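To whoever is on call:

I kicked off a structure prediction for a single chain this morning and the downstream step that reads the tokens threw a length-mismatch warning. I double-checked the sequence; it's 85 residues and nothing unusual in it as far as I can see. Pasting both halves so you can look.
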Amino acid sequence: MAGIASADAIGAGSIGERWRGEDHRGAIAFLRSAVPSDQPSKHLSALLDLKDTAHYSIALINVDAQKKAERASAALIEKARGLLA
């Protein structure tokens, strides 16, 4: 969740706006338009791919997926910190 929230902070820090739509996938396109680099939107996409499983499924995510999510989240948090510092 921290990584997904950081995507909102990145938008706010970059262009003074955040994604307000109900479709989380729209946030990926929004982030891509707010930040010249495509890395933040790729990180957000990776997190959203795991979100439903992590939140609503009784299935556990595997270790590789967990590590990928941790890296994506850390990258988004770091980007947000850099913009808002």
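Update from on-call: the warning came from a stale cache, not from the record. Cleared it. Sanity check on the structure: The radius of gyration is 13 Å.
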